[in-house]
C-alpha cells in the first residue's frame, strides 16, 4: 500500500515563471500550478550571460510585474540564485548571478532553481506526484536529469547537486566519457547523447536519437537495448536507495520504442529488490512542469533553511 501525503501548502499568488534552457527561454504567468500566457524566445546561448539575462528579462517584462521564479540549466545555488557549474551549452553561464541580474533588470524578487529539480517540484506539487509523500523523477533526454522528493520536501543536497542521477557508475560504461568530464556513468550510454554517439561510432554516420529508434537494423536494436537496460538498472538501483512512493519519467528517450522499453523493464526487474518491484513507474502529466516548479519555488524556498 502506498503512503499518501496530505500537503498543507497554501494556494499561491500569481508568479512569473521563467525557464532558461539551451535552445529557448520560456515565460508564463503561473497561478496555483497552471501556466498561462506562455511566450518563448530563442536562447542567445553563445553570446554570454548578459545577453541571456537580457533575453529572459525582456520576456518576463511582457507578462507584467510580480515575483519571478526561474528554472535554469546548470547546477544552481537555490538560495543565492547563482550558477555553480554549467556545461558549454550556455557560454560563460558558470558563475552567473541569475537572481541578481534579473532582479536588477526587472526590479522584482527572483528565486532560481535547477531546471530538473524545478520539473520534479512542479510534477510533485501539481502533477502525477500530488498526494504522495515521496517521489523520484528521472528524465532521460540529451542527458539524464532527476529530482528526489522525500518526506514532502525536494532533496537539495549539501552542494545543491541532488538529483544528478545520470552520473551514477554503470556496468558497460567503463572508459566511456560522460558529459560531466568523468567516465563510466549511466548517462554516457543511456542518454540521447550516448545513443547517438554509440551509433556514430559503430556506423560512421550521425543520426538523431529519433531516427535511430525508428531504424530497423541489428546495430540500432543493440544500441537501444543496451541503453534501455542500463536505464532500467539505474532506476532499479535508485528505487533500492530511496524507496519512493512512485517513479515519474519524462524526457525524449522515453519514446525510443519497443526494443528500448522491453530492455528498460528487463533492466529494472534485474536490479530492483523484490520487495520494491511493485513501485509504480508512471509518465509525467504536467505540461510546463519546470515553469510551474520554478514559480512554486518562490514560496517553497522560504520553508527551507539556508544550508
UniProtKB/TrEMBL annotation:
<protein>
    <submittedName>
        <fullName>ROK family protein</fullName>
        <ecNumber>2.7.1.2</ecNumber>
    </submittedName>
</protein>
<comment type="similarity">
    <text>Belongs to the ROK (NagC/XylR) family.</text>
</comment>
<dbReference type="Pfam" id="PF00480">
    <property type="entry name" value="ROK"/>
</dbReference>
<dbReference type="InterPro" id="IPR043129">
    <property type="entry name" value="ATPase_NBD"/>
</dbReference>
<dbReference type="InterPro" id="IPR000600">
    <property type="entry name" value="ROK"/>
</dbReference>
<keyword id="KW-0808">Transferase</keyword>
<dbReference type="GO" id="GO:0004340">
    <property type="term" value="F:glucokinase activity"/>
</dbReference>
Amino acid at each position: 500500500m502506498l503512503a499518501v501525503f496530505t500537503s498543507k501548502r497554501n494556494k499561491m499568488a500569481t508568479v512569473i515563471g521563467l525557464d532558461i534552457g539551451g535552445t529557448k527561454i520560456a515565460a508564463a504567468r503561473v497561478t496555483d500550478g497552471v501556466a498561462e500566457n506562455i511566450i518563448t524566445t530563442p536562447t542567445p546561448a553563445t553570446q554570454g550571460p548578459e545577453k541571456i539575462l537580457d533575453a529572459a528579462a525582456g520576456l518576463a517584462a511582457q507578462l507584467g510585474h510580480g515575483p519571478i521564479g526561474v528554472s535554469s540549466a546548470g547546477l544552481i545555488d537555490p538560495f543565492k540564485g547563482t550558477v555553480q557549474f554549467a556545461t558549454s551549452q550556455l557560454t560563460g553561464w558558470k558563475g552567473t548571478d541569475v537572481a541578481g541580474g534579473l532582479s536588477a533588470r526587472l526590479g522584482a524578487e527572483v528565486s532560481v532553481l535547477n531546471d530538473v529539480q524545478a520539473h520534479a517540484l512542479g510534477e510533485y506539487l501539481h502533477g502525477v506526484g500530488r498526494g504522495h509523500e515521496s517521489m523520484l523523477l528521472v528524465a532521460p533526454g540529451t542527458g539524464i536529469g532527476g529530482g528526489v522528493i522525500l518526506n514532502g520536501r525536494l532533496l537539495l543536497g549539501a552542494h545543491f547537486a541532488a538529483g544528478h542521477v545520470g552520473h551514477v557508475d554503470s556496468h558497460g560504461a567503463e572508459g566511456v566519457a560522460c558529459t560531466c568530464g568523468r567516465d563510466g556513468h549511466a548517462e554516457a550510454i543511456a542518454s540521447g547523447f550516448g545513443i547517438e554517439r554509440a551509433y556514430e561510432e559503430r556506423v560512421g554516420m550521425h543520426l538523431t536519437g529519433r531516427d535511430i529508434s525508428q531504424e530497423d537494423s541489428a546495430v540500432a536494436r543493440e544500441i537501444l537495448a543496451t541503453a534501455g537496460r542500463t536505464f532500467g538498472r539505474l532506476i532499479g538501483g535508485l528505487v533500492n536507495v530511496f524507496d519512493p512512493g512512485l517513479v515519474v519519467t519524462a524526457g525524449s528517450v522515453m519514446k525510443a520504442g519497443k526494443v528500448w522499453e522491453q530492455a528498460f523493464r528487463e533492466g529494472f526487474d534485474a536490479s530492483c529488490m523484490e520487495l520494491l518491484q511493485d513501485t509504480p513507474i508512471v509518465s509525467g502529466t504536467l505540461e510546463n512542469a519546470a515553469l510551474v516548479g520554478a514559480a512554486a519555488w518562490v514560496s517553497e524556498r522560504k520553508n527551507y533553511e539556508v544550508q
